[in-house]
Structure formats: C-alpha cells, structure tokens
Q: What sequence folds into this?
C-alpha cells in the first residue's frame, strides 16, 4: 500500500512539474519589450532610432516597443507638421505611439484631431507601471 501511494505521488509530481515547465516556456517571455515616456515630440526622433537599433540587436527576441506621450506639450500630436513623420517612422519600425488621456484632458486637447494611428490610454503613468509589472523595460525622458 505504501508503494502504491508513493508511486502515485511520484507520478503526479512529475506530471505537474512537466506541465509547469511547459507553461513557463510559452514563448512570450523570451521577447524583450520596451516602453518610453516622453513629454516632447522632438524626442521621438532619438527614441525611434533607439527602437530600430534595439530591434536589430535583439533580433527574434524583440517584442513590443511603446512610446507614451504625456505632459503639457501633448497638444503637438494634433499638429500634422510635427507628428506625421514620426507616425510613419514608428509604423515602419513596429513602434506604437500612445497618448496619455489624463494629459489630453488636463491641457484640453481636441481628441477628434488626434491621428488615428495614435492610441489613447486613460492614464499614461499608470499604463507605464502596468507594463513594467509585465516585464517591460522602461525609461522616462
């Protein structure tokens, strides 16, 4: 009877242990994800160059790269002369540009003038922390 219980426990341990290994290697955690918070549209140029360099360096391990725009100059995202070249470059690099909804509200930005390529989140700072909890590497400029 002892051998039967011991054998059963051993088999269950092996099965659950193997299941946990498979769950840990689902492939997603091998990707390196990045998020940058910026307050100024001109900073998009060096951020996008950095994203391109990291994509080349990381190769297949490159995951997502997100740029969150917050602060008093957020209204510049509605100026096509200032933002369109960065939107195109971000799209080509696979980078997502995100606007902070809190900043949009605080500085009374007309949301209908935000380019459709720019995603909006309710609170950019909170969103950054949530991404960090998911393992994103983060920097604020």
A:
């Amino acid at each position: 009877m002892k051998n039967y219980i011991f054998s059963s426990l051993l088999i269950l341990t092996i099965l659950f242990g193997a299941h946990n290994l498979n769950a840990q290697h689902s492939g997603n955690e091998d990707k390196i994800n990045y998020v940058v918070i910026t307050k100024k549209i001109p900073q998009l140029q060096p951020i996008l160059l950095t994203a391109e360099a990291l994509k080349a360096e990381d190769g297949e391990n490159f995951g997502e790269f997100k740029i969150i725009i917050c602060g008093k100059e957020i209204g510049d995202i509605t100026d096509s002369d200032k933002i369109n070249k960065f939107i195109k470059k971000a799209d080509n690099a696979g980078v997502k540009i995100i606007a902070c909804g809190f900043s949009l509200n605080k500085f009374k930005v007309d949301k209908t003038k935000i380019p459709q390529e720019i995603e909006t989140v309710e609170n950019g700072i909170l969103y950054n922390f949530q991404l960090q909890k998911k393992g994103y590497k983060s920097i604020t400029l």
Observations:
- The chain has two domains: 1-26, 31-140.
- The longest helix spans residues 2-24.
- Residues 3-28 have pLDDT under 50 and may be disordered.
